[in-house]
Amino acid sequence: VWYPMSVCTNSRNQKLAIIKGMDETGNTNWAIPGGAAFKLHDFGFRGVSSVESASIGGCAHLVNFLGTDTVAAMVCAKRYYNASKISGHSIPASEHS
Q1: Could you give phi then psi for residue 74, rounded to 5 degrees?
Q2: Is residue 75 within 8 Å of 84, Cβ to Cβ?
Q3: Residue 13's pLDDT is what?
Q4: What sign for the dihedral angle of Cα 52, 9, 63, 93?
Q5: Is residue 76 within a helix (H) or strand (E), and if so which, with residue range?
Q6: Alpha-carbon gap, residue 50 to 12, rounded angstroms
């Protein structure tokens, strides 16, 4: 239980910091994709110990953000939380340094 709660709490705090920064710098476009929903992307599958960890942690991230490359998280959201739509979206990324 601690892992998804930690991920969700962390991402919520990061979302609040992002929103504050956007607000302070004059952001007026809060609709998707201009708002905070895609400002923190989940690449968490790369650093976890199992598919189950990726599913649980990625699903917790999706509570606050829509950007993810963790397909297992979207499967988890659909299977266990009855997500009727696609719960996350990828972004075009051409390079990883």
Answers
A1: -70, -35
A2: no
A3: 97
A4: negative
A5: helix 71-81
A6: 23
What are the tens digits of pLDDT across the range 29-65?
A: 888 877 899 899 998 888 899 999 999 999 999 999 9
Residues sharing a CB contact under 8 Å with residue 88, sequence separation 6 or more, in sequence order: 42, 58, 62, 66, 67, 68, 70, 73, 74, 77
* Start-to-end C-alpha separation, the chain: 33
75 bridge partner residues: none
Q: Where are the beta strands (DSSP E) in the chain?
A: none
Beta partners for 68? 42
pTM value?
Answer: 0.85
